[in-house]
Specification:
It comes from Fulvivirga sedimenti. The N terminus is likely disordered. This protein has two domains: about 120 residues, Rossmann fold; about 55 residues, no CATH class. The protein has a ten-stranded mixed beta sheet, sandwiched between helices. It has a four-stranded antiparallel beta sheet with strand order 8-13-10-11, with no helix packed on it. Helices cover about 20% and strands about 35% of the residues. It is α/β, with parallel strands linked by helices.
């Protein structure tokens, strides 16, 4: 971070990595560089250790008799979590750190129900191989988009007086307004 940026405690998002090849993700370096808390799953941890990425928390299933010793020898400060659901564990980690937003790198496309468990008390942005998805709480979401921008939606939303839309192309540069009585997701293709 350059010296002219001032960040309020808890303002930066955490990063949750649950992909076998995190270094191959096009946004990995950018996201890892801006996230003070890095959480990894078992499938990601080996590649991250070999790349000297400083992982703070490991989500691991110890019920299969696995040991975290090899990871702790590489990352002595590593905190290992093996109980509960991923959503509950991530929420507890971030609540303890006073962090209110998380970014997720995953190989899964469109796993909204699972992502909703992580997003229950947090803001979340999900980076899949093809999209960036933002979780939006019930209410109205406003954002500026350029003309021609493709957007995709998951959830019961209302945009420009229309409901039930799954895809939308922005017709003119400017702010669009999307509303819903329930949580929903706004997706932008990465390419």
């Amino acid at each position: 971070m350059s010296s002219h940026h001032f960040v309020i405690e808890g303002q930066e998002p955490a990063l949750l990595i649950e992909t076998k090849k995190p270094l191959a993700h096009p946004f990995f370096e950018q996201l890892a560089g801006w996230n003070p808390i890095i959480i990894a799953t078992e499938e990601a941890i080996s590649e991250l250790i070999h790349a000297n990425v400083n992982v703070d928390h490991l989500l691991m299933d110890k019920s299969a008799g696995k040991s975290d010793d090899e990871y702790r020898s590489e990352l002595p400060h590593l905190q290992v979590h093996s109980d509960g659901s991923i959503g509950g564990t991530v929420n507890a980690i971030l609540k303890n750190a006073d962090c209110k937003h998380i970014q997720l790198i995953t190989d899964e496309n469109n796993n909204f129900e699972r992502w909703n468990t992580i997003a229950s008390d947090l803001g979340i942005t999900v980076f899949t191989p093809s999209h960036m998805w933002r979780h939006i709480a019930p209410g109205t979401f406003r954002a500026w988009y350029p003309k021609g921008k493709q957007l995709e939606f998951y959830g019961d939303i209302r945009i420009e007086g229309k409901t039930g839309i799954a895809e939308y192309q922005v017709s003119a540069d400017g702010i669009i307004e999307i509303s819903s009585k329930d949580q929903f997701w706004v997706g932008e293709p990465l390419y």
